[in-house]
Every structure is written in C-alpha cells, then in structure tokens.
Amino acid sequence: MSDSHALKRPGRVAFDAGVIKKFWEEKIELHTRQLQSEAIRTHRSALDRRGWNCKTTPTSTGPATTT
C-alpha cells in the first residue's frame, strides 16, 4: 500500500496492539467460562447420571457410576 492510502485512514494503521491483545484475552476467557459451565451443566444432567453419556461406564446391575 502507498503512504497516501495510510494517511486517508490513520485509525486503521495506528491501532493500539494492547487493545487488540486485551480483546482476544477477554474472548478466550469468556469462551473458557462457557465451556466450563456447559461441562458442569452436562455433569449435573439426569442423562449423564443414568449412563446415557459416553463418558460414564455403566455397571452390570445398576446405573452408571462416575469417578
């Protein structure tokens, strides 16, 4: 790109890298919290406790047990 193009849109060229870093860190933290809450929700669900989820191992005489 030429210098004249950079001068037409100075806000795009001189953007603070710290703002971008903070934005993505917040996005990652939010995504991590959402994954954790989903894991807690599925762990507490009735289907998970009864052995319908693949992560649990059913016993021969009763409902699934989790460790």
UniProtKB/TrEMBL annotation:
Organism of derivation: Gulo gulo (Wolverine)
InterPro entries reported in the protein's UniProt record: FAM240 (IPR040261)
PANTHER family attached to this UniProt entry: PROTEIN FAM240B, PROTEIN FAM240C
Protein's recorded name: Uncharacterized protein
